[in-house]
Amino acid sequence: MNRKELDPDSSPQAAFGARLRSMREARGWKQEDLAEKTGYSSTHISAVETGRKMPTLRFSRSADIAFGIADTTDTFERQYREIRHGSLLEGFPQYVDYESRAAEIRVYEVGVVPGLLQTPEYARVIADSVVKRGAITSEQADERVALIAERQAALVRTPPPLVSVVLDESCLRRPIGEPAVFKAQLGAVIEFAEQPNSMLQVAPFTMGARRPLSLPLYILTMADRSLMSYAESAQRGHLERDNRFVLPMLTAYHQLQAEALSQAESIAMISQIRKDTL
Fold first, then answer.
1. 99 has a pLDDT exceeding 60
2. 179 phi and psi, to 5 degrees?
3. What pLDDT sits at residue 55?
4. With 90 as the cut, is the pLDDT of residue 91 above it?
5. In this structure, what CATH number is given to the domain that contains residue 29?
6. Is the pLDDT of residue 119 over 60?
7. What's the number of domains the chain is made of?
8. Measured in whole angstroms, how far is the alpha carbon of residue 25 from the centre of its chain?
């Protein structure tokens, strides 16, 4: 039987396949054995092990259960997410996982409309611009756009999370894409504000020194009322779970909301900007 040797260092996908094969063989299992335990065919197992097929989230979770590592810190699911979100900043994939289960989501964004509110066309323009700069590949751009859609879909659950968004005025004044794309995006922001589980405010330029935050910030409240925050710089992202650091950020967010425009005033501003977009 021909055995394809795989270099685990050649790619994250190859590392996943090599690890899968190594753990299977360490237990004395044939591919047929693992196939039976995961509900996949032996052909599928072979394709993942040799890097010919990209693992999926479902496959990764099935492998974790089969190997008895589902509740550990070194799961195939974690490895899959690293492959899937390899172009994202550190900490963001973990944040997205928590976001999909959060009871409350608080967002402050600067410069661009945040992903949770982006239309596919707006998201595509942003992703393609990063490709043009050579920072990511076209495939990674596709993954970023798909991830935005997944994050938005995760908001449609019962009960839905409470989502509070404060947009710096720069998000509304910076045109992204063709006028039709930008105009549709502003319309989507207004539609977001009309949802019963959402709150939208604009932090106008006139706030000046009263603005307590200058960088984007995301704060989550989980079902057990635990808190975490995510913030990023140009090169790094950081997920914080320590309340000693999260609570001051939550306080600053509340101060930001107090100084920002009301939702009615915010919608009026957005509607006017949309009307002025040619």
1. yes
2. -50, -40
3. 86
4. no
5. 1.10.260.40
6. yes
7. 2
8. 35
Question: Quick check: 120 pLDDT over 50?
Answer: yes
Determine, yes or no, domain membership for 103.
Answer: yes
Which CATH number goes with the domain that contains 187?
3.30.870
Confidence of residue 163 (pLDDT cuts 50, 70, 90): very high
- Give the SS3 label for residue 5: coil
Element (H, E) at 151: helix 138-154
Q: List, as one string, the DSSP characters of 261-274.
A: PPHHHHHHHHHHHH
Global model pTM greater than 0.85: no
Residues contacting 16, CB < 8 A, separation 6+: 48, 55, 76, 79, 80, 83
Q: How far apart are CA 35 and CA 43, in angstroms?
A: 9
End-of-domain residue from the set 84, 113, 137: 84
Residue 54 lies in a domain: yes
Nearest Cα to Cα of residue 270 among 192, 207, 178: 192
Tell me which residue range forms the domain holding 217. 92-276
Q: How many CB atoms lie within 10 A of CB 146?
A: 14
Give a yes or no: residue 126 inside a domain: yes
H/E element, 34? helix 31-38
Residue 82's nearest CA partner among 11, 134, 23, 20 is 11
Separation CA 76–CA 35 (nearest Å): 16
Tokens (6 digits) for 133: 């700069």
What is the C-alpha R_g of the chain? 22
Query: Sign of the CA dihedral 233, 115, 61, 32?
Result: negative
* Whole-number Å distance between alpha carbons of 190 and 131: 29
pLDDT tens-digit series, residues 147-161: 899 899 999 999 999
